[in-house]
Amino acid sequence: QVQLTESGGGSVQAGGSLKLSCAASGYYFTYCGMRWYRQAPGKELEWVSTIYSTGYTSSKGSVAGRFTISRDNAKNTLYLQLDSLRTDDTAMYYCAKGETFPPAERGQGTQVTVSS
Fold first, then answer.
1. Residue 99's pLDDT is what?
2. DSSP secondary-structure letter at 39?
3. Strand boundaries in 3-109, DSSP class E
4. 42 contacts: CB under 8 Å, gap ≥ 6
């Protein structure tokens, strides 16, 4: 059974940083692409960043250069480093297995709140 558990969210001021983690289990993590999504109150789920099994990454334009996705296959863990946070980054952040939208499997989420 696939399990994805996010952690690392919190409340920070604009310009601050956070590092999100996603512990994965129940499947061959190393061979799967992974994604981060976010959903702000009253808005739809939006894709943030992808890391493929090859290590290749891509990110949404508004976060490119500020957010960095990475993975540690030995620990079955996905990460998202959030730097230079802005108030419009406030959202629930989810990790998801695979590269399809909407994601078939995702975690319960971790809240990121950025204040001005």
1. 87
2. E
3. 3-7, 10-13, 18-25, 34-39, 46-51, 57-59, 67-72, 77-82, 91-97, 105-106
4. none
